[in-house]
Amino acid sequence: MIRVISIPPLATVQDLGRDGHWFEGLGRAGAMDPVSHRIANILLGNSTSAATVEIPLTPARFRFETTQAFAIAGAVCGAKLDGRKLPRVFAGMAKAGDELEFGPISAGARVYLALPGGIDVPTVLGSRSTQLREAFGGHEGRVLNPGDLLNPVTHSDPALPPSGLSLDLPEFRLPKEGEIHLRALPSTEHDTFDPDALQKFWSEPFDVTRQNDRQGHRLSGPELTRTSTGELRSHGIVPGIVQVPSGGQPIIQLADSATMGGYPKIAAVIEPDLWRMGQARPGDTICFHKVGFAEAARATDDQEAAFAQAKQALANVREPELSWA
Amino acid sequence: MLTLEHMNELAGTMIANGIASLEVKGNDYALRLERSPDAASITADAPGLDLMTALSPADGVFHPRGEADGLPVLHSGAQVVEGEPLGYIGIGPVRFLCVSPTSGQVIGTLPVKGITVSAGDPLFTVEPRS
User: Fold this and answer.
1) Phi, psi (5° rounding) for residue A107?
2) Mean pLDDT throughout A130-136?
3) What contacts A244, CB < 8 A, 6 or more positions away?
4) What's the whole-model pTM score?
5) How many CB pairs under 8 A join A and B?
């Protein structure tokens, strides 16, 4: 069990999201960076869909009320356990009374904290994610506050070496110097944009602006104009859709995406790359790279294979080292 | 060219091995390092008692900290606290943390990235903070 001592605004409990309710006008929610969420869970032997705490911005501080295992992954934020520095990706044991601190973020945007079996919150409509707009799911349907207590699903800790474990998965390292590359498919209104706008969209960098939250990131860069004018009817949108409002500056829809929108859609960022936007910060530079359906499907397979290999590697080192427990 | 960092590492190696004096010569320089009689006598009287060693936690490949873990690169002479990660032993993508056994100063030569080590091999020497 851990107690929240201090926490920034908008820290929530999330899992991989609430699929299956799009047709009812209910978005997915879920972790903004599902890769870090999954890595934190894998380190503890949890299901990758177990709930974690998503902490955007920092600092934050937690106190362990009981001795137990935990894992962290995500942004670089000078994490410390009882004053000892921790790597960006870590799983280990905390003693009752230890404090886990997250300092100022120096790379990335979100940290994920996992407990054995996941964070114990009720499943609502098939997910433990906090649906902030609709105020349900997660921890009482709201952001976390100082004083909140979070329990693990299981009180059985996984086998971990005394000094802890980390994982280094090169494909999931944070982008260097804020340069984020996103693979994307052309979307429905792609061909209604000027050829010059399309050339710029696929070749020139865009900056992440300060207008960003769990719903989406507004970008600034070359103006993207269309050959056809007039309003579109509202239509379904999903996380990853890149819309271009009349100002010509794109918006990427993210985890708390609306389910409907009326802006023209120029592209759709592929699912395996969306985690990079979950770690994007104002001032970061984004480049879009056009791919087809086959490459998008391959990227999903590659990502799943990387997670499967990481799980297997952990299982291989745990097997002969049961004495850790 | 010798840098201050090199000299610091040499000094750490001397302390770690109880060497009282050391002479290093290059094409255009000669450097002689001598431990003070007080420090030398401490080592002679009680060898190794002042120093603590961080041991490899597993068989595997050594990886320094500071590459993709968000921690600062570790140099000889760095101040560390007990339990702080000094480096990693890798088995595939899994990293076992090699942590400082005490709070103090890392001295001596640091392990080279990519070397293969066995569980229990000494990797870092830490001079406890007095």
Assistant:
1) -155, 140
2) 95
3) A193, A224, A226, A250, A251, A263, A264, A265, A266
4) 0.87
5) 84
Confidence of residue B42 (pLDDT cuts 50, 70, 90): very low
- The whole-number pLDDT of residue A85 equals 96
Q: Using the beta-carbon criterion (under 8 Å), do B68 and A77 form an inter-chain contact?
A: no
Gap between the Cα atoms of A243 and B13, Å rounded: 61
pLDDT at A55 over 90: yes
Chain B, nearest residue to A82 by Cα: B83
Is the Cα dihedral A84, A88, A94, A99 positive or negative?
A: positive
Neighbours of A67 (CB within 10 A): 12
CA B71, A210, A14, A97 dihedral sign is positive
Three-state DSSP at A41 gives helix
The CA–CA distances, whole Å, from B46 to A117, B18, B41, B51 equal 49, 10, 8, 10
According to the model, what pLDDT value does residue B43 have? 42
What's at A192, amino acid-wise? T
Of B57, B71, B90, the CB nearest to A161: B57
Interaxial angle between packed helices A293-318 and A34-43, expressed in degrees from 0 to 180 and rounded to the nearest 10: 20
Each residue's pLDDT tens digit, A10-42 = 999 999 999 999 999 999 999 999 999 999 999
Task: State how far the Cα of A220 lies from the Cα of A252, in Å rounded to an integer.
Answer: 11
Interface test with B, best of A44, A85, A102 (most B CBs within 10 A): A85
d(C-alpha A169, C-alpha A183), whole Å? 19
pLDDT of residue A169: 85
- How is residue A50 written in tokens? 């177990």
pLDDT at B41: 37
Average confidence score pLDDT of chain A: 93
Mark yes or no for CB contact A167/B93 under 8 Å. Answer: yes
Would residue A317 be called left, alpha or beta, if left means φ above 0 and alpha means ψ between -120 and 50 degrees?
alpha
Q: How far is A180 from chain B (nearest CA, A)?
A: 16
Q: How many whole angstroms separate alpha carbon A303 and alpha carbon B38?
A: 59
Report the C-alpha gap between A137 and A236 in whole angstroms: 23
C-alpha pair distances (Å), B17 with each of A110, A140, B46, B76, B107: 45, 60, 12, 15, 11
Q: Convert the pLDDT of each residue in A152-165 to its tens digit.
A: 999 998 989 999 99
Q: A68 - beta bridge partners?
A: A94
* Residue pLDDT, tens place only, A165-216: 999 987 787 777 678 999 999 999 999 999 999 999 999 999 999 999 999 9
